[in-house]
Design goal:
Layout: H1 3-6, E1 9-10, E2 16-20, E3 23-28, E4 31-36, E5 41-45, E6 49-54, H2 59-80, E7 83-90, E8 95-99, E9 102-106, E10 113-116, E11 121-127, E12 130-135, H3 138-150, E13 161-164
Antiparallel strand pairs: 1-6, 2-3, 3-4, 5-6, 7-12, 7-13, 8-9, 9-10, 11-12
């Protein structure tokens, strides 16, 4: 049995939970998210808690029980507080700016890179070299941050590129004479 799946998910204040068949809708001040539960699981909504239980004990239901509970808990946190990732841009002439619904990046290429901002994501360029990506969906925030980072990964010799805030880049020693 799943230790994580057994724990009921606490519903924060200001968040409403509705269920329609196997679909759970969570609505809060940061937005609205939905989760389609697997057929192996059943959800019970009480006053301020949502509990998941497996219909039958099988290998698949045991595996998915904790996953579905974690996804539901992330939805609750996302619509109440939101999630955020920060990116740092290092390099001479490297900078970013938000223009409308796209992020414009100058990363040392011969052209400017334009990254379309998906719905539900907010990107702020606090400084030309510091980006804050925020949104209600944890998976989408992480995916957007990873896609932006992949445009110019930090290289090991000078450390130029886009990295997560707080990420330690493993540096290499250059060529010796």
């Amino acid at each position: 049995m799943s230790r994580i799946g057994r724990k009921p998910v606490q519903v924060p204040a200001g968040v409403s939970v509705a269920m329609d068949g196997q679909t759970i809708k969570v609505k809060g001040k940061k937005g609205e998210l939905t989760l389609k539960l697997l057929d192996d699981l059943v959800a019970k909504i009480e006053k301020d808690k949502v509990a998941l239980t497996p219909k039958t004990v099988s290998k698949r239901s045991k595996m998915m029980w904790g996953l579905q509970r974690s996804l539901l808990a992330n939805m609750m946190t996302g619509v109440s507080n939101g999630f955020q990732r920060s990116l740092e841009i290092n390099g001479v002439g490297f900078r970013a700016a938000v223009a409308g619904k796209e992020l414009q990046l100058q990363l040392g290429f011969s052209h400017e890179v334009k990254f379309p901002i998906p719905a539900g994501i907010e990107i702020k360029a606090e400084k030309p070299t510091l980006l804050h990506i925020s949104g209600a969906d944890r998976q989408l925030v992480g995916q957007v941050a990873a896609e932006i980072r992949s445009l110019r990964r930090p290289e090991p010799y000078k450390g130029k590129g886009i990295k997560y805030a707080g990420e330690a880049i493993r540096r290499k020693e250059g060529k010796k004479k």
